[in-house]
Amino acid sequence: MGRKLLEISYLGTNYCGWQVQPNGTTVQEILQNALEDVLKHRPDVTGCSRTDSGVHAKSFYCHFDTNVNIPNKGLVLGLNTKLPNDIAALNCYDVDDDFHARYDSDGKTYRYSFYCNEIKNPFFEGRTLWLKNTVDLSKANEYCNLLKGEHNFEAFSSINRTVENTVRTVYDCYTIKTKSGFDFYVTANGFLYNMVRIMVGTLLDFCNDKISADTINNAFSSGERSLLGATAPPQGLYLEKVHYSKNFK
């Protein structure tokens, strides 16, 4: 039995998130179905994260064990004949038997994409958050600087979080202008439930002068969710990159 690390990409619009659940179709379920078709057994698949319903992933990693001897490239090609068009296998690697896609990650980068125009664009539906007006990116980056470093992000998480430790370190955070609007990027050693989406909702309130820097700092010290902005919709959120210290071959 050997362990494989699989990199996939997916549009989350048609799925109830990554993790298998009884109430809807998930990416994990569809991937396991494809693996079963190719490997002729159904492996347990462990993901690097639990993306919410409607959230996308440019790069998502998961591991599984198999005793089927298929070359990694052949496995990728085989999976792509079984997967729907909104899920793609990108790469596959042999890893140590104790490797864990989630716990061996050094951090993750998320992107949230905005489409800014008074006229809606149907081609961005489900993939960006539509704003009729753009925001002041210099002010947005002022907000991003407040998030950098080690903080207690309890206020930036939903009550549905499943962990007690809410201290996280944000390594980098910024916004950049795009042809259609702008993107918000954040890299951290870990993320709480709904953390990025609350960051985004708070960014919009900060840029509209509804929330101040003092309020952000008070939220860090108090953990009060009510001090911050709304939880942004899921459709603009992408898991952009998962960081590992090991180089895979």
Keywords:
249 residues; Alpha-Beta Plaits; globular; single chain; ten-stranded mixed sheet; alpha+beta; 5 helices; 2 domains; 10 strands
Q: What does the model show?
A:
By secondary structure, the chain is of the alpha+beta class. It has two domains: 2-103, 2-Layer Sandwich (Alpha-Beta Plaits), CATH 3.30.70; 107-242, Alpha-Beta Plaits, CATH 3.30.70.660. The chain has helices at residues 27-39, 72-82, 137-147, 195-207, 213-222, and strands spanning 2-10, 46-47, 56-66, 87-95, 107-116, 129-131, 149-152, 167-177, 181-188, 237-243. Strands 1, 2, 3, 4, 5, 6, 7, 8, 9 and 10 form a ten-stranded mixed beta sheet that branches. Helix 3 crosses helix 4 (195-207). The chain is globular, with a radius of gyration of 19 Å. The two termini are 18 Å apart.
How much strand?
A: 25-35%
Shape label: globular
Can you tell me the CATH architecture of the largest domain?
A: 2-Layer Sandwich
Give a quick account of the main beta sheet: strands, pairing sense, barrel closure: 10 strands, mixed
Average pLDDT number: 95
Count of separate structural domains: 2
Topology order in helix (H) and strand (E) letters: EHEEHEEEHEEEHHE
- Helical fraction equals 10-25%
* Structure class: alpha+beta
Count of alpha and pi helical runs: 5
Radius of gyration: 19 Å
CATH class of the largest domain: Alpha Beta
Fourth-level CATH superfamily of the largest domain: Pseudouridine synthase I, catalytic domain, C-terminal subdomain
DSSP summary, beta strand count: 10
The low-confidence parts are: none
- CATH fold label of the largest domain: Alpha-Beta Plaits
- End-to-end Cα distance, whole Å, is 18 Å
